Amino acid sequence: MQIRRQIGCIGLQATFLRGVLALHSIKTSPTIARPLFASRTLYADDVLVKDTGSHEPQILPARQPLHSAFADDSSGGMPCKQDFSVLSWNILLPNSQDNWWCHKMFAPWVPMEKREWLHRQALIRDRLLLAGADIVCIQEADGETFERDFAFMEEAGYEHCLHRKFRFRCATFFRKDKFALEQVAHKDRTLVTELRSIDGSRALNVVNCHLSGGAVPERRLRQVHEALDQIRKWKAKVAITLEKQRNARRPSPRNIAKAEDALRLHVEAGVIVCGDLNSDGDTGVRRLLVEGSVDPDWREPQYPKVPLTSKRKENSIVHSFVDAAELAYASNVCDGDYGESPSLGSRPATYVVPNLASMLLLPINGGGIPRTQFGYQVARGVADMLGLHTFSASEVKRAFKALDLDGNNVIDEDEVQMLVETVYFSTHGRMPTAEERTEFLRVFGISSTDRAELSYEQLTRKLAALKQELEGGSEGTELVEVRTEVDVQRMIARFTPLLRDALDCVFDRLSSDGGETLSEEDAEKFLVVANGQLGRGGMWRQTASLFEIKTAALMRAALTRQEWYEMFARELAEGKWWQVMYDLEVCGANLRSQAEEEGHHYQGWLDYVYFNSQRLACTGIQEALTAAEHSRIHDDRDALPNEWYPSDHLPVAALFCWK
């Protein structure tokens, strides 16, 4: 399609504007402020029941068998049927075959042999077998080496179900003398199992989670909602079977009774949602579980600009859930009452690592990250023209249809150019020059060598980058997605003087031409020292890609100092503080020794055990650390993982009984 722009330009702009004008009236509702805690509501089928929440679980000391608590009246006088225990733990991906970079996560004083899998495996084995939980939910199992890594669990009387997808897998173990596996669903970052007690009298649904990390709260919400909906589908299937038996031409009382018993098990089933949720505070996942629903206009405080859902999401179990640790410690993760100076008896963090981010990056709120005025004008003009307010999926879809004038499901080059001209004319009152047109497309993410046409997926990515340009990054968070070169420069602007000096020191030390560049040989020397060999790691992939591009352009394969900064900026954007620290220190930078004060450890409340409190009572929760271990971490600054602890996460263990 060829569009003549000369005399008919203004008329074509009018045609174009008709396609997008309707989008201007689309408004988003303002965020509605809500209390952090709503009254806790439970559901008995479709009847609302208030939970008094009066039962307080015991807090059990660390490193003792969980079943020993059942010897006493741990139920607090409540009628208790068939006690059971659950332990959830992100063990940190085994490094027997995969996870070659695991050793970088340890402090430099930890001996290398204490970072290896054989040592870590022994610590994991001892912890799990001592606890002796009836159900053990593991996150970050390795599918390739799983049978070998956890053979000790089978020897101890456990059966298991391993997620069949993903690199970092969930695995659910259960004692075969107490439970049997009825059915399983392998969902997005969740493993959903239905267990039956050996006598067949009880059903327990377990959702083992390792939710997506980073600035994707909407995906975490979807993952948990999808897992809960799977349990609803299982129940609905049994209900349909019962209905068919009742409506059969010759109904069988025996089959009807059998179907009724099966449905009763599903209705009265307990539900456990546990694992590494990769988020804390007042999140969409918490709201879905505890309050039962998430509305489209609600936002997580940490990500106030990120829409979580386009329509109301409801907890399909119609049972309210309770956070076992919140119940036991009488403290939550929404209003900060867990404290920054932890002590035994307060709600323990489940993720305790060195606070490297403050040594490497300046805070986002401290002074702001500079943006180009022209880039902001492009973003603002496109957003206004297309009626983009929240940049939700529905808004992007409407924008795509408005831009795709010929309806061929691709925004052709002429349609892209028409967008440029219309936005530029509405912003500056004139048509762009050739140079201005090129610069506009560059800011929009299309280089002069690209073919200026966009699929729906490409437009979505371009608009996401423009959204970030408008927002100036995700304020208040350390992790910021790097999608454009502008984002990379923002990340470099956040480098602390300490990090910049370390980068310069290593660059100059490696450079064979007096600090001008790093030749291919210089770069390979760095990669071998940092990664042990060539051919693996994010820094190697970045270097290989850049050298390939330069070679194809008949340029010398070498890294400039700026490109060196940019590669580290991309690694930091993925939260790889420990990798950057290790790579620079192994090359002699001595970052930690130069830091004036490393400060407190970074603590996160990422791991949880939730339960449906109408069907289950939590009778106890176990401390993750002994007093001596607590002191070593918080007083002696021995953060996780370390010589005596194999993971960066602490386990969460709880005791339950059916009501």
Please give a quick description of this structure.
By secondary structure, the chain is of the alpha+beta class.
Give me some keywords for this one.
659 residues; single chain; globular; 6-stranded mixed sheet
Please describe what this structure looks like:
The chain is of the alpha+beta class. Helix content is 38%, strand content 17%. It has a 7-stranded mixed β-sheet. A 6-stranded mixed β-sheet has the order 8-9-10-11-19-14. Helix 1 crosses helix 12 (413-428), helix 11 (393-403) packs across helix 14 and helix 15 (485-493) crosses helix 19. The protein is globular and about 80 Å long. Mean pLDDT is 82; it is low at 1-54, 74-80, 336-341, 365-373 and 472-478.
**Helical region count?**
22
How many runs of DSSP E, i.e. beta strands? 21
Mean pLDDT, as a whole number?
Answer: 82
Helix/strand structural class: alpha+beta
Low-confidence stretches: 1-54, 74-80, 336-341, 365-373, 472-478
Q: Taking Cα atoms only, what radius of gyration do you get, to the nearest Å?
A: 28 Å
Topology summary:
Blueprint: H1 9-21, E1 41-44, E2 47-50, E3 58-60, E4 81-90, H2 117-131, E5 135-141, H3 146-149, H4 151-155, E6 158-162, E7 169-175, E8 179-187, E9 190-197, E10 203-210, H5 217-246, H6 253-267, E11 270-276, H7 284-291, E12 293-294, E13 313-314, E14 321-323, H8 324-329, E15 351-353, H9 357-360, H10 373-386, H11 393-403, H12 413-428, H13 434-443, H14 456-471, H15 485-493, H16 497-510, E16 517-519, H17 520-531, H18 538-552, E17 558-560, H19 561-573, H20 577-585, H21 591-594, E18 602-604, E19 607-612, E20 616-622, H22 627-634, E21 652-658
Parallel strand pairs: 3-20, 4-5, 10-11
Antiparallel strand pairs: 1-2, 4-21, 5-7, 6-7, 8-9, 9-10, 11-19, 12-13, 14-19, 15-18, 16-17, 20-21
